[in-house]
Amino acid sequence: MEVVLLRGASGLYLAATVAALTGIAVRRDFPDRLFHWLVGAGLALHVASITIRAVLVGHVPAANFGEGLSLLAALLVTLFLVVQRRGPLIALGAVIMPLAFGLTLAASVLKGGAQPLPPMLRSVWLPVHVLLAFLGDAVFAIACSASVLYLIQERRLKAHRGRGVLRQLPSLERLDQVSHTCLKWGLILLTLGIVTGIVWAHEAWGRGDWVGDPKLLFSLLVWALYTVLLQGRMTAGWRGRWAAQLTIAGFAVIVVSLVSVNLLGLGIHGRAF
Amino acid sequence: MSQSIVLVGLSHHTAPIEVRERVAFADGRLEPALRGLVSRPAVREGVIVSTCNRVEVVACGGDADAVAAELPAFIAQAHGLEGDALAGSVYTRRDREAVRHLFRVASSLDSMVVGEPQILGQLKEQYALAAAIGASGRVLHRCFHKSFSVAKRVRSETGIAEKSVSVASAAVELACDIFDRFDDKTALLIGAGAMGELTARQLLAKGTGTLMVANRTFERAADVAGELGGMAVPFERLGRMLPLADLVVGAAGGDVLIRPGEIEDAMRERRGRPMLLIDLAVPRSIDPAVNQLDGVYLFDIDDLDDVVAENRGSRASEALRAEAIVEAEVEAFWTWLEGLDVVPTIVALRDKVEGIRQREVERHLGALGAVEPRQRDAIERLTRAIVNKILHHPVTALRRHQSERGETFYVEAARSLFRLGGAEPPDDEEEG
After folding, report:
1. B-chain residues near A171 (CB < 8 A)
2. What are the angstrom distances between the C-alpha of B359 and each of A43, B188, B356?
3. Residue A29: which of A84, A115, A88 has the closest Cα?
4. What's the pLDDT score for residue B110?
5. pLDDT band of B431, cuts 50, 70, 90
6. What is the pLDDT of residue B73?
7. Which range is least confidently modeled, A14-28, B155-169, B361-375?
8. Which is deepest, A38, B256, B361, B423, by most CB within 10 Å?
9. CATH fourth-level superfamily of B167-311
10. Is A207 exposed, middle or buried (0-12, 13-18, 19+ CB in 10 A)?
11. What is the pLDDT of residue B57?
């Protein structure tokens, strides 16, 4: 049942992607309204799917890669709707929704049966750590998407090109703001994610081999990178293209860590995630 | 024909801004240029149209080829260029084509921003100067006044001007691609010309928080600032105002006022907050290299073309209606102009009178009843002789007064008195 719902959500996200792309290219309200309707409906199915799964397995459904991706996608779409409250950003939707579609599609393929939770993961830290970490990743994904749009918009302006099909790209200022705000919140969430992870690991294993866990090292790298970027933004006036490029680079590290750790099964997160 | 209208020029369609600014006629140079133009043997009348998007010379003369041959060289030489320096950019329009072109220009159909209202004012101003010094005569007088009334018709009968998509609003559209909100932004207007003022107005309408106005003469800056609700700043302190400005509108022609070094300093002080610079001036007042700087976006008047190109598409149907109006008016004007030609006037006069004679002869022969061929012949000869005698002097006068200098009074009088085709009331309708 929850897989059907997830596939349904996935389909709606794909449709929302098409609506967003159409919305960018034409100056009509209709695709915009359709887009919001599709995103809302998709998220409703998606949340229902995750809830059912949570009830079935009896814990936050993030114990395997498929579940993790599905949860990440749901958080991403929810955050996107939050960011949208300050005025529509259909162009951002055109980046976020294909991402959500890809994640949910992968999740529905990888889903697999519900496995019993390994004993060492049975802890209150599971939902806390996992939600914080995923929320952080989702926030950075939005920062990265806004930065991609920023680079597109900035290139177009520098080259003095007309809008072409990109009729509804947000202003540079708005994109920079979204990226900046997401960077701040993402960094807070990432910090909390790392701290809770360390506390949990310490509780579970004491001073063990988790210190060299690749996921932890990747996270610390991302943390260092984004801290430098935020510092630069707040004190040295880094912004614009350079800040956007760094934001994208940081997110690339996150993607590499997700893929390498969880698909190749490196370290604690690779084994138990 | 004896009255040929030739238009030679270059515009944003054919020449980049670098070329246009080299051949633009500055205000002070327009008058001597006009005198030089009409002193050329082939040219009877002339008007020069010079805006930041076009330089066009409209001339009238007896020999179209001779006029068309002179004008490109005239434009080049007026700016100290080789006679054929502009060969690639200059277009030549003759007669109907020339009139159509002028009507389209006046109606803003040929503008960079179709439907923008400034061109008509500029045209009127420059025509008035030509009229004041006697460079334009009867033909161009009529032609320009007609173009003003065509522009008025296009404006009122089509929706082409409704959206008021002007260069100014194109600039605002660009600002919206960079800035999200305007209430915390400061705009700096350099120069107090009409175009700059219009752009500043639009930026204020968008909600721009603060406006600073700088001008070479401070009083003028103070006037404009007072009118728009901004503050005037001394021209010499421009460099120190730049860091405060999120939007800079450069509308002061003359020389380059803003260079990359100054903007670099300003950006440092602004801590990288983006700047939009719009250069409306021709010649340009902002060094194009400024656009290379990070976070700095410079658009000159050519670049604005890209922004407005889309607006053009959406207004295509209105433009078609406007073109139809222009077409009809060109025909009407052409009929009038052809009427100025003495030969067709004489032919028309003879035809008209001969027609009357024949009709009357037929009518009255019927009343006479049976008439012998010989008598009928005599009546024909009698009436023809009367007609010829009456027409003799008018026709001779027409031939004689036709033109040493394109004198058209008698031709028009004849057309009007005898109600020949193409005659319109002698008064030109004034534009509003």
Report:
1. 176-180
2. 90, 76, 5
3. A88
4. 85
5. very low
6. 86
7. B155-169
8. A38
9. NAD(P)-binding Rossmann-like Domain (3.40.50.720)
10. exposed
11. 94
How large is the ipTM? 0.83
- pLDDT tens-digit readout, A257-269: 888 887 776 676 7
The CA distances from residue A237 to A130, A146, A242, B268, in Å, are 33, 18, 11, 9
The residues, ordered by sequence, that sit 6+ positions from B369 with a Cβ below 8 Å of its Cβ are: none
The 3-state DSSP class for residue B250 equals strand
Report residue B15's pLDDT band, with 50, 70 and 90 as the boundaries. Answer: confident
The catalytic site residues of B sit at 52
Which residue intervals of chain B bear CATH 3.40.50.720? 167-311
Size of interface A-B (CB pairs under 8 A): 52
Ordered DSSP codes for A200-246: HHHHHHSS-GGGG-HHHHHHHHHHHHHHHHHHIIIII---HHHHHHH
Locate CATH 3.30.460.30 in chain B.
4-163+317-338
The pTM assigned to this predicted structure is 0.66
Share of chain A above pLDDT 90, in %: 42
By residue count, chain A amounts to 273
Quickly count helices (H) and strands (E) in chain B: 16, 10
pLDDT at A271 over 60: no
Q: What is the distance between the alpha carbons of residues B171 and B300, in angstroms, rounded to a whole number?
A: 10
State the Cα–Cα distance between residues B350 and A197, nearest whole angstrom.
Answer: 108
DSSP run (H or E) holding A67: helix A65-84
Please provide the DSSP assignment of B351-416 as one string.
HHHHHHHHHHHHHHHHHH-S--HHHHHHHHHHHHHHHHHHHHHHHHHHHHHS-SS---HHHHHHHH
Distance from CA of A31 to the nearest CA of B (A): 19
CB B154 within 8 A of CB B104: no
The tens digit of pLDDT for each residue in B88-128 reads 889 999 989 999 999 999 998 887 666 777 788 889 999 99
Q: What is the pLDDT of residues A101-151, one digit of tens each?
A: 999 998 888 766 656 666 766 778 888 898 899 999 999 999 999 999 999
A172·B310 Cβ contact <8 A: no
d(Cα B141, Cα B267) in Å, to the nearest integer?
A: 52
Which chain B positions have a beta carbon within 8 Å of A173's beta carbon?
Answer: 178-181, 274
Task: Tell me the chain B residues in contact with residue A239 when contact means C-beta distances shorter than 8 Å.
Answer: 272-274, 295
Our separate counts of H helices and E strands in chain A read 10, 0
Yes or no: say if B150 and B103 are a contact pair by the CB < 8 Å rule: yes
CATH of domain B4-163+317-338: 3.30.460.30
